[in-house]
Amino acid sequence: MAVKYKLAFDAEDPHRLAAFWAEALGYVVEDHSTMIRDLLDGGVVGDADVTTMDGRLRWRAASAIRDPAAPVDEYSGMGQEGRVLFQAVTEAKTAKNRVHLDLHVGEEQRAEVIERLSRLGARTLWDGRLGPRTWVTMADPEGNEFCVA
């Protein structure tokens, strides 16, 4: 049996990174507001644990995105596959990522995607090449490296 997983990023601002990566991947930001409201009403969490953004309750220290075509739990708003979680941490990023995402968009769309991601807050770091394969390494708004191939 395959193991279910989600990819988790440490973040200074999890909501900003979730918005960036949702746009970059064609994902949607998860809506946990129904579950959060129940937890608030039940006294399980307090006002300090949540915030309101775009008229919805959200976790203050975390945000997640999901594949819009994948199954979703309607109560929790959590995707059942293809989730990416962004969680607030106090320490800043200090070194190159040991794991990163590769966005495979094709050579014919690469320049357009790089321009769009740059408008969203990414920046180009360097061009890469291995044999006939080429890519551009970029950094998201918090400096996490990723490649556009």
How would you characterize the overall build of this protein?
This protein is an alpha+beta fold and 149 residues long. Helix content is 23%, strand content 32%. The strands form three sheets. A four-stranded mixed beta sheet has the order 1-6-5-2, with helices on one face. The longest helix has 13 residues, at 107-119.
Topology summary:
Layout: E1 7-11, H1 14-25, E2 28-29, H2 33-41, E3 50-53, E4 56-59, E5 62-66, E6 84-88, E7 101-103, H3 107-119, E8 123-130, E9 133-139, E10 145-148
Parallel strand pairs: 1-6, 7-10
Antiparallel strand pairs: 2-5, 3-4, 5-6, 8-9, 9-10
User: N-to-C SSE series?
Assistant: EHEHEEEEEHEEE
Overall average residue pLDDT: 95
SS summary, helix count: 3
Using only C-alpha atoms, the radius of gyration works out to 17 Å
How much helicity do the residues have?
10-25%
Overall shape: it is elongated
Strand tally? 10
Give the low-pLDDT segments.
Answer: none
How far the N terminus sits from the C terminus, by CA atoms, comes to 31 Å
Percentage of residues in strands: 25-35%
Largest sheet report: 4 strands, mixed
In spatial order, strands of the major sheet run 1-6-5-2
Question: Which structural class do you get from the secondary structure elements?
Answer: alpha+beta
Give a brief rundown of this model.
This protein is α+β, with helices and mostly antiparallel strands. It has 3 helices and 10 strands, in the order βαβαβββββαβββ.
